[in-house]
Design a protein that fits this description.
The complex is a heterodimer of chains A (424) and B (148).
Chain A (H helix, E strand, L loop, with lengths): L9 H19 L5 H23 L6 H20 L1 H27 L7 H18 L1 E3 L2 E7 L2 E3 L1 H18 L13 H25 L3 H18 L3 H21 L1 H11 L10 H13 L22 H9 L1 H24 L3 H25 L17 H22 L11
Helix pairs in contact in A: 1-2, 1-3, 2-3, 2-4, 3-4, 3-13, 4-15, 5-6, 5-7, 6-7, 6-8, 6-14, 6-15, 7-8, 8-14, 9-10, 11-12, 12-13, 13-14, 13-15, 14-15
Chain B lengths: L1 H38 L5 E4 L13 E3 L4 E4 L6 E2 L10 E6 L2 E6 L6 E3 L2 E2 L5 E4 L4 E4 L2 E6 L1 H4 L1
Parallel strand pairs in B: 3-4
Antiparallel strand pairs in B: 1-2, 1-11, 3-5, 5-6, 6-9, 7-8, 7-10, 10-11
Classes of the chains: A mainly alpha (424), B alpha+beta (148).
């Protein structure tokens, strides 16, 4: 019975860190609100229950969820410390997210014909973009929020997933996806299919440009280039794509005011500390004031950083928990990406392979783009840090793709239920 | 109070790194078993049915059965499993004319093939898909060659 409390089980560390952190916040904030302890126990209970479901239900790889639950714990601790109300709301989102995670895992396994729906993915994505254009509200500079009965959400998060599904459809049978039964010649079909691929990618980028969502533009184009590099057979086509991207990027820099500002503040944020460089300099001050071990939860001033709940949560973590925790967070994301790639290597089904690879790439790149932006490694673009940032739609979509990855990972484990040679 | 605060920060960082270390350790064990499996793809093997993380001792995901091998807790065996419920030499797998037989070597807690207790000294023939249970661990005997 006492075997449960061994130092070798990673889940115990998650319980430990939540217990420590919420007790610490409880005593340190001098508020003695019992909500804090209740929230802590709620989070622990949720994570443990979900972990047990994954283990008992044989849902495949369990490391994915372990790593993610550590990230979630750090995120909720930090958000709760920044703003109690938002922290509790984030915990509720997490509960819904975990339910979505298990649900999407089951649905993905239950429905077998995902690879035949390429056209529907395209239509749905365009539909979502159009809705955003017509009904979208402007919150924090980007016109990509839809508000229904007081709940705001970003359709963008769904269309990113749809784009990866489309890529998976395309690369399952490259150059033969559409026009299969038409009377065009073979090279013509190949060209038409590639034009569809490139066209749909540019359609995504174009709509995102109208929403001024620069972070997502970079994300989508990088996913496209990486997936094409890994699964594309034609080197010349890949080369054209990369070369074609350069003049577009240059055009953006010279003619789009927003992009120019972003790059200028990245090169020298100190020129205009009070204005355009304010966000990035505050973030750098916050990170440096923390030192190696941080000021302690509740003792720093991360509230000075703008948008600290969402985009800049990494600098708040660095300030209050120390740069070493920041490094640990990056390590956790690296492990998550590694785990995703390992799952993908073992998968035999072509569609699942591309899909899993796209999802892993998206998680990894998203982390790189936002953490790189916050520490002034690359130009800053507003995008959420998966599983840590506050935000219902971002958290839910991250959980949905994690569920899909989990479902894909189960392919390795299929023979454990006694169906010995099925997949061979 | 200042010292407690500092100590708390240390503890936080320490716990997070311990977590990372323990996950990496499990992942490492996972990869090791994967390489082991790949080397013996065509030979018959024992596949672990239990969830490895539920067991508190070291056990591989698969064990290749290429020769007569003795399963047990002691280090001189061919297949070593440090389960406290397994005797020091627990059971033996014998190969005769391409057929596989399992024999209990007088173990304390018994050997089970498809949930039937094996009498000591009796040789039970193993077919593809048979379940073998010794102590807390349960294996699936996989012999893909004989099926084809």
């Amino acid at each position: 019975m006492f075997g449960i409390f061994t130092y070798r089980k990673p889940i115990n560390y998650i319980i430990l860190i939540n217990l420590l952190a919420y007790t610490y916040i409880f005593y340190n904030m001098k508020l003695y609100k019992f909500d804090t302890l209740a929230l802590g126990f709620g989070v622990i209970l949720l994570l443990c229950t979900a972990y047990c479901i994954i283990l008992k239900g044989r849902l495949g790889d369990e490391y994915l969820f372990l790593i993610v639950s550590m990230l979630l714990s750090i995120g909720i601790i930090m958000i709760y410390r920044l703003d109690n109300g938002i922290g509790i709301r984030q915990a509720v989102w997490m509960a819904i997210g975990i339910a979505m995670f298990i649900l999407s895992c089951q649905i993905f396994r239950w429905f077998k014909r995902w690879e035949q729906l390429a056209v529907y993915y395209m239509v749905a994505a365009v539909f979502l973009y159009l809705i955003t254009l017509i009904f979208g509200r402007n919150i924090n500079g980007a016109t990509n929020w839809i508000i229904i009965k007081g709940q705001s959400f970003q359709p963008l998060e769904i269309s990113k997933i749809l784009y990866i599904f489309f890529l998976a459809c395309y690369f399952r049978k490259p150059d033969r996806l559409f026009f299969e039964n038409s009377k065009y010649t073979k090279p013509m079909k190949l060209r038409l299919n590639r034009m569809t691929l490139v066209g749909f990618t540019f359609l995504n980028i174009g709509f995102l440009m109208l929403q001024r969502e620069w972070g997502s533009i970079i994300l989508i184009s990088l996913i496209y280039i990486v997936v094409l590099y890994v699964f594309g057979k034609d080197k010349l086509f890949y080369f054209f794509n990369v070369v074609f991207a350069i003049p577009i990027a240059l055009f953006g820099y010279f003619f789009v005011h927003h992009i120019k500002v972003r790059i200028d503040t990245w090169l020298n944020p100190w020129a205009d500390i009070a204005g355009k460089g304010y966000q990035i300099t505050q973030s750098l001050f916050a990170i440096s004031s923390g030192g190696y071990f941080g000021t302690g939860i509740g003792l720093g001033r991360p509230d000075l950083v703008p948008a600290v709940n969402t985009d800049f949560i990494f600098s708040a973590i660095c300030e209050e928990m120390g740069v070493l925790t920041g490094v640990a967070v990056i390590l956790l994301y690296m492990m998550l990406t590694y785990r995703g790639l390992k799952i993908v290597i073992k998968v035999r089904n072509g569609f699942n392979k591309v899909l899993g690879f796209g999802i892993t790439t998206m998680l990894g790149l998203q982390t790189f783009i936002i953490i790189g932006g916050v520490i002034k490694l690359i130009p800053l673009t507003g995008i959420t840090l998966p599983y840590i940032s506050y935000g219902g739609s971002s958290l839910l979509s991250s959980f949905v793709i994690l569920g899909i990855l989990q479902a894909i990972s189960k392919d390795d484990f299929a023979d454990m239920d006694g169906e010995i040679n099925e997949g061979e | 109070m200042g010292i407690i605060r500092l100590l708390m920060n240390f503890v936080f960082v320490l716990v997070i790194y311990c977590f990372i270390f323990s996950v990496i350790r499990l992942i490492y064990m996972d990869i090791k078993s994967m390489n082991f499996f790949r080397a013996n793809e065509n030979s018959p093997y024992l596949k672990l049915i239990n969830q490895r993380e539920m067991l508190n001792f070291k056990v591989e995901e698969t064990y290749a059965v290429t020769k007569n091998s003795i399963i047990g807790r002691s280090d001189k065996n061919d297949i070593i499993i440090k389960d406290p419920f397994i005797s020091s030499s627990h059971a033996q797998i014998t190969i005769r004319d391409g057929d596989f037989f399992i024999k209990d070597l007088g173990s304390k807690n018994g050997t089970f093939a498809n949930e039937n207790t094996l009498k000591e000294g009796y040789e039970q023939r193993l077919n593809n898909g048979d379940k073998i249970r010794l102590g807390q661990v349960e294996f699936l005997f996989v012999n893909a060659v004989s099926d084809k």
